[in-house]
């Protein structure tokens, strides 16, 4: 098969969950199929929409430069570049992972070229213009409030008010700006709902995400399936864990507000017994400095360990901690880090909501705390410290949904993707006749 993978970022330039997953399936699928990746980069010294091609061992990566068009969603120039790429590559199927930072017009190009479309949902971007249902609240208060329902007016006044001119009264100009952004959101959401009609099949990596898209975005049940991520288990293996001199908590991931690292630091600072917190993460510099300031005054050491390499997670990260904490303040759908820790038999403490609670069962393979609650997180961290043997037992349980505790491997996962691809291709051929 000729497979076109579309994703808004690709390693090593971008290493968040959807990008790492995309890399894993591309590496695996390219062993047996012809694969081309279409993605973006953000080179501020090059023109917008410039195309660059990079050859890798078994596949090519085509980058479109997108350093400035962050909140746009449909770009004519990208659509034209993409159409030229389709004519050149002639894929049998397109697998979309994310269109943010790219263009929704990509879907229309694929429809025009009669290419069947699979779409893996990694967050709420089709439903929520900001992707995570986490409000921006440009008012100096109510930082990162969770949103559970999309509303055009609410989007304009809570998340897009940062683009207002700054007028504070209720005069015409402010009303006009609210009206403008409410209409802008409405147009965007109409485009997103049209995408649902054009995609052959959606894949959700958690049942929570699947059910939410069915209920709140009205994706027909017959057009969406649940399929958890697959993982390269050749480097994610159970480790020979040496007990640390003091109980050690770990965090890995991006150092952004949505990930709740500040929540973790605040909870950890409450601990008075000997303990350690190690934080591995990708940051923009200022975020790291802010977190280091927050860490000041902790009675126990908080160590910022810098970035990590996925291939070395088992040896460089998981072997050095007793438990991994996933403290996200947005309702995550299927965090890779939870699966990666479970593959290495490291127990996880995470929030009792969404896909986090779907893959971690309280005192079965980890611990759950009340969502966004510092005190509750502190209590679970303290329980973990006081029950180290029990935590090791929870870690050995691993992945809840398999008898052996093992997370889905990338080889089996890609075989299932191949089966889905062939099924969709055959269905498209049948309907076209």
How much is the radius of gyration in Å?
A: 22 Å
Strand content: 15-25%
Helix content: 25-40%
CATH class of the largest domain: Alpha Beta
Encode the helix/strand succession as letters.
EHEEEHEHEHHEHEEHEHEHEHEHEHHH
Class from secondary-structure proportions: alpha/beta
* CATH homologous superfamily placement of the largest domain: Glycogen Phosphorylase B
Q: How many DSSP H or I helices?
A: 14
Mean of residue pLDDT? 93
* Beta-strand segment tally: 14
The CATH topology of the largest domain is Rossmann fold
Order of strands, main sheet, comes to 3-4-2-1-5-6-7-8
CATH A-level architecture of the largest domain: 3-Layer(aba) Sandwich
Tell me the count of domains.
2
Task: Give an account of the 3D structure.
The protein is an alpha/beta fold and 433 residues long. The protein folds into two domains: 2-126 and 190-230 and 409-432, Rossmann fold (3-Layer(aba) Sandwich); 247-397, Rossmann fold. Helix content is 38%, strand content 17%. It has 14 helices and 14 strands. It has helices spanning 17-29, 76-89, 105-112, 152-159, 172-198, 207-217, 261-268, 286-295, 313-316, 336-343, 354-359, 374-386, 388-397, 410-432; strands spanning 2-6, 34-41, 51-55, 60-65, 93-96, 117-120, 201-204, 224-226, 247-254, 275-282, 302-306, 323-326, 348-351, 366-369. The strands form two sheets. The chain has an eight-stranded mixed β-sheet with strand order 3-4-2-1-5-6-7-8, with helices on both faces. It has a six-stranded parallel β-sheet with strand order 11-10-9-12-13-14, sandwiched between helices. β3 (51-55) and β4 form a beta hairpin. The radius of gyration is 22 Å and the shape is globular. The two termini are 21 Å apart.
């Amino acid at each position: 098969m000729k497979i076109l993978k579309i994703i808004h970022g690709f390693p090593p330039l971008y290493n968040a969950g959807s990008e790492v997953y995309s890399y894993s399936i591309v590496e695996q699928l390219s062993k047996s199929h012809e694969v081309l990746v279409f993605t973006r980069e953000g080179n501020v010294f090059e023109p917008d929409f410039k195309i660059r091609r990079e050859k890798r061992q078994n596949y090519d990566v085509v980058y479109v430069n997108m350093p400035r068009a962050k909140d746009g969603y449909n770009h004519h120039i990208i659509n034209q570049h993409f159409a030229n790429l389709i004519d050149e590559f002639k894929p049998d199927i397109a697998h979309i992972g994310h269109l943010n930072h790219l263009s929704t017009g990509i879907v229309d190009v694929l429809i025009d070229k009669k290419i069947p479309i699979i779409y893996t949902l990694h967050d709420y971007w089709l439903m929520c213009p900001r992707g995570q249902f986490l409000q921006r609240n440009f008012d100096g208060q109510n930082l990162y409030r969770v949103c559970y329902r999309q509303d055009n007016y609410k989007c304009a006044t809570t998340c897009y008010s940062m683009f207002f001119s700054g007028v504070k009264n209720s005069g015409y100009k402010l009303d006009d700006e609210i009206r403008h952004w409410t209409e802008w959101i409405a147009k965007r959401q109409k485009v997103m709902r049209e995408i649902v009609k054009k995609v052959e099949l959606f894949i959700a990596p958690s049942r929570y995400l699947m059910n939410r898209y069915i209920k709140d975005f009205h994706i027909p049940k017959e057009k969406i399936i649940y399929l958890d991520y697959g993982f390269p288990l050749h480097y994610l293996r159970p480790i020979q864990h040496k007990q640390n001199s003091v109980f050690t908590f770990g965090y890995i991931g991006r150092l952004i507000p949505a990930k709740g690292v500040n929540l973790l630091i605040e909870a950890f600072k409450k601990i008075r017994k000997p303990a350690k917190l190690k934080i591995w993460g990708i940051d923009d510099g200022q975020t790291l400095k802010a977190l280091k300031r927050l860490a000041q005054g902790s009675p126990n050491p908080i160590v910022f360990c810098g970035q990590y390499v996925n291939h070395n997670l088992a040896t460089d990260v998981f072997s050095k901690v007793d438990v991994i904490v996933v403290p996200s303040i947005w309702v995550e759908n299927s965090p890779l880090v939870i699966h990666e820790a479970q593959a290495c038999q490291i127990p996880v403490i995470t929030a009792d909501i969404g896909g986090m609670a779907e893959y971690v069962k309280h005192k079965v393979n980890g611990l759950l705390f009340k969502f966004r609650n510092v005190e509750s997180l502190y209590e679970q961290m303290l329980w973990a410290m006081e029950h180290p043997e029990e935590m090791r037992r929870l870690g050995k349980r691993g992945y809840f949904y398999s008898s052996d505790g093992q997370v889905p491997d990338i080889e089996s996962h890609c075989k299932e993707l191949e089966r889905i691809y062939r099924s969709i291709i055959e269905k498209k051929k049948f309907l076209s006749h």
